[in-house]
């Protein structure tokens, strides 16, 4: 025989009375939560974010056709993302893992919006960054128990090895990785770059610099073989020119010295020299043609970039959201106190 369970009823009035009975807890705890929340969030420096977007030109050897149609039905623009290069656009974000790419940003010249800071980005991160007070204590304690390492090498100097960084340089490189976000849209191939800094103008400078550096990397990679071929044909052209000029001088000297001679042996040698000069001239013109074709190939392989969105100097900070944080802490404290006040009802149920 089944038992009839009475529906659970909630006495709102009783709950309100129990919460009101604990009103002194609200009076004591909420101001303390407000003060502690403000103290915590105000200790975190504000930061600004600038972002830019660009679309690089890509080869589309497999665009269109059945395979492209199938990919488009699945929501992927296969023609945009498929290239003949080994490094596809989807791999560009992995460049931030390379020390060489990141440490090249050390040399960027930056200037704060108020003009008080003018230095390279490495010095800015090392000397002018603001940190919460607990980070300063943590860093101080860490330095006490960590042996002093070698001096930092000059950035851009001949002795600087990006793959053998000191502890301080490695920390700065890690900070840069955290401040720069590089993403590629899988459908459109659009590259988005976001840069974070405690100064609005520096965040814009950093975003523009990363975009320019990425463009240089893509251009250098796409034109690497073509530039190698260009250098090879340049050397062949120069060698062919030297050989031709040498043969021309030899022929000219021999022809001038024997202009009055009618002997067949002299005329035969003159013809041989003339033919050799002509062969070397033909070879030289062929190398010039090859060199010009290689130059055109470099230009053909050089990608064009379309900037879809330029980086703006941000007006408002991106974070931290101070008011939101304080309100959220007060709300959580209110909920916690309320639950504590009606714990008897909760346990009884």
What is the typical, i.e. mean, pLDDT? 84
Number of domain units:
3
Q: Specify the helix fraction band.
A: 55-70%
Low-pLDDT residue spans: 61-76, 150-157
Write the element-wise H/E pattern from the N-terminal end onward.
Answer: HHEHHHEEHHHEEHHHEHH
Main sheet summary: 4 strands, antiparallel
Radius of gyration: 36 Å
Alpha-carbon distance between the two ends: 25 Å
Based on secondary structure, the structural category is alpha+beta
Anisotropy-based shape: elongated
Q: Strands of the largest sheet, in order across it?
A: 4-5-1-6
Number of strands: 6
Proportion in β-strands: 5-15%
Q: Count the helices. How many?
A: 13
Task: Write structural notes for this entry.
The chain is α+β, with helices and mostly antiparallel strands. It has three domains: 12-43 and 326-348, no CATH class; 48-223 and 307-317, no CATH class; 226-300. The protein contains 13 helices and six strands. It has helices at residues 12-21, 23-43, 65-73, 78-81, 99-103, 121-127, 133-144, 167-179, 200-222, 224-257, 264-301, 322-341, 343-348, and strands spanning 48-56, 109-111, 118-120, 180-184, 191-197, 305-309. The chain has a four-stranded antiparallel β-sheet with strand order 4-5-1-6. A two-stranded antiparallel sheet has the order 2-3. A hairpin with a 6-residue loop joins strand 4 (180-184) and strand 5. Helix 2 (23-43) runs antiparallel to helix 12 (322-341) and helix 10 runs antiparallel to helix 11. The longest helix has 38 residues, at 264-301. The protein starts with 11 loop residues before the first helix and ends with a helix. Residues 61-76 and 150-157 have low confidence and may be disordered.
């Amino acid at each position: 025989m089944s038992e009839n369970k009475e529906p659970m009823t909630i006495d709102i009035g009783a709950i309100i009375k129990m919460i009101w009975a604990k009103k002194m807890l609200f009076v004591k705890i909420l101001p303390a939560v407000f003060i502690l929340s403000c103290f915590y969030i105000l200790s975190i420096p504000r930061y600004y974010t600038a972002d830019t977007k660009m679309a690089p030109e890509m080869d589309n050897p497999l665009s269109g056709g059945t395979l492209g149609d199938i990919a488009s039905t699945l929501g992927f623009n296969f023609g945009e993302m498929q290239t003949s290069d080994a490094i596809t656009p989807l791999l560009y974000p992995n460049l931030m893992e390379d020390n060489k790419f990141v440490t090249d940003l050390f040399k960027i010249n930056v200037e704060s919006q108020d003009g008080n800071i003018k230095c390279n980005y490495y010095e800015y991160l090392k000397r002018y960054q603001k940190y919460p007070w607990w980070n300063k204590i943590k860093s101080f304690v860490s330095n006490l128990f960590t042996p002093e390492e070698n001096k930092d090498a000059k950035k851009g100097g001949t002795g600087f090895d990006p793959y053998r960084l000191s502890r301080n340089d490695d920390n700065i490189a890690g900070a840069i990785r955290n401040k720069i976000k590089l993403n590629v849209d899988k459908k459109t191939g659009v590259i988005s770059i976001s840069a974070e800094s405690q100064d609005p103008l520096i965040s814009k400078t950093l975003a523009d610099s990363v975009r320019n550096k990425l463009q240089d990397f893509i251009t250098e990679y796409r034109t690497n073989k073509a530039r190698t071929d260009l250098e090879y044909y340049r050397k062949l052209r120069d060698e062919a020119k030297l050989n031709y000029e040498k043969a021309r001088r030899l022929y000219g000297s021999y022809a001038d010295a024997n202009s009055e001679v009618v002997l067949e042996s002299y005329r035969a040698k003159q013809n041989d020299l003339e033919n050799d000069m002509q062969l070397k001239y033909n070879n030289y013109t062929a190398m010039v043609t090859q060199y010009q074709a290689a130059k055109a190939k470099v230009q053909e392989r050089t990608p064009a970039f379309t900037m879809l969105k330029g980086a703006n100097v941000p007006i408002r900070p991106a974070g931290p959201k101070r008011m939101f944080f304080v309100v959220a802490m007060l709300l959580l404290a209110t909920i916690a106190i309320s639950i504590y006040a009606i714990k008897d009802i909760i346990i009884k149920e």
